[in-house]
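Bench notes, afternoon.
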Amino acid sequence: MGTRPALARAAPHLHEEPCIGGERGTGALFFSGCPLHCAYCQNHAIAEGRFGRTVDARGLRRAADALVAQGARSLSLITAGHFLPAIREAFDSPPPVPVVWNTGGYETVEAIRSLQGIAGVYLPDYKYDDEAGAATYSNAPDYPAVARRAIREMLRQRPAVRLNGEGIMESGVMIRHLVLPGRAAQSMAALDRIAGEFGGAWLSLMAQYTPTGGLPKPLDRRVTRREYGRVVDHLFKLGLTEGYVQELSSASEAYRPAFDLTGVGD
């Protein structure tokens, strides 16, 4: 991808968890490229297709400041880990709203450590707790171990969730887990891990999986009500009540933004 950030979109985003954006939304900066190769990727055009416009650190900060001026209650840096030097330069002086590090979780401890003082909120995925699933669906058999180490470093920096007066998270860790079709048991195992090892983190259980064309079974269908219900029941059994549970009706293409260079200057 090179060293200069490639941005595909910088715009208010209203579909994140309420504590991330509130009613006004988060200022979402979508970066091109990704260290994972998920077969079911919802953002394929930028993750694999590398669509985006290259900017320097000053251009990145201008895009972020414009979002704050539009009323964004936080700034979400989405899959930005491969542009860390420019990120650190752009956010050397803190913006007036929390910076959210929105990541697939496949990051080194050293990378996360370098964000201390920049990222107020960490929003990592914990996609898999099984190496077989990580290898099959994301071509990364070491994903579970890598993500666990990264999340532990995030919690070292931000051990407890703190909300501001508007209910916006200004510090802490929220772990996302997307339930995939045919993998309810594996999702429950991931929740076991989160409950057992990541005390202090909130959980966001996601139901928005939407199949794209050409996927093998079982990824070629939506998550069933029974599958999702099993995972939700297990969540409450574990006492993972801090955070959010998406409705199954959230499985919609409406969550997929238009990658059209909105908000990205020349």
